[in-house]
Amino acid sequence: MAMLTKPTIPRWAAVLVFPVQILLWYVAAPAAFAELTSSFGWKNRRPGGWNLLALVLLVPGFLCLAWCVYLHFARSPRKVEVPETAPPYLLTEGPYRWSRNPMYVSGVAIWVGWAAYYGSVAVLGVALLFWSALAFLAIPFEERRLEARWGEAYRRYKRAVPRWLGAAGT
Questions:
Q1: Residue 63 sits in which domain range?
Q2: Among 11, 16, 33, CA closest to 110
Q3: 13-44 pLDDT, tens per residue?
Q4: 40-56, pLDDT tens digit by residue?
Q5: Is 115 part of any domain?
Q6: Residue 5 belongs to some domain of the structure
Q7: Please, which residues bridge with residue 80 across strands?
Q8: 94 and 68 in contact (C-beta within 8 Å)?
Q9: Helical spans, DSSP H, in the chain
Q10: Are 163 and 170 in contact (CB under 8 A)?
Q11: Quick one: which of 65, 118, 121, 134 has the fewest CB in 10 Å?
Q12: What does each C-alpha distance from 58 to 19, 27, 45, 52, 107 come to in angstroms?
């Protein structure tokens, strides 16, 4: 009986696939959801001053997300597992010094930023659903996988670095 192998993509393909995924999920999807409700704060199809304050979340969110993607790409082997819930390396540098999940923190910040920019209740609703799915499903699942793979090294990291931002060990 043949063993099932996890699907993989070469690193060079990840350079093409991941930016497209990021653009779809973090740019196109919020714009599409914004069309479902009124745009609070907008006048003459232009964002108001308060809407532009969303850049305080959007710019750092995208920069941190890009930094995380770069770190993962730099550490990944020649082929990348899809999906990869416990990578063959433990990242503890860069934004991973301040959060065990900086990609998720960035993603939620981006969605909340878009909600403020568009003045959209629908985008805010998706942001809350996204955060809930991460907090209650994805992160606990990934943490179990990382602990199984990395053991005490991951437990030490988990005690030293917070899950989101704030106090360590949460």
A1: 26-37+48-73+90-170
A2: 33
A3: 777 888 899 999 999 999 999 999 999 999 99
A4: 999 998 999 999 999 99
A5: yes
A6: no
A7: 9
A8: yes
A9: 11-23, 29-34, 49-52, 55-75, 102-118, 121-133, 139-150, 152-160
A10: yes
A11: 121
A12: 16, 10, 20, 10, 9
Q: What is the DSSP letter of 46?
A: B
Distance, in Å, from the CA atom of 162 to the CA atom of 157, rounded to the nearest integer, reads 9
Query: For residue 30, with 0-12 CB atoms within 10 Å meaning exposed, 13-18 middle and 19 or more buried, which class applies?
Result: buried
CA 10 to mean position of chain CA atoms: 22
- 26: three-class secondary structure by DSSP: helix
80 is a domain residue: no
Residue 168 DSSP one-character state: T
Q: At what angle do helices 55-75 and 11-23 cross, to 10 degrees?
A: 160
Rounded to the nearest 10 degrees, the angle between the axes of helix 102-118 and helix 121-133 is 170
Instruction: Output the domain CATH number for residue 64.
Output: 1.20.120.1630
Nearest of 4, 3, 138, 6 to residue 79 by alpha carbon: 6
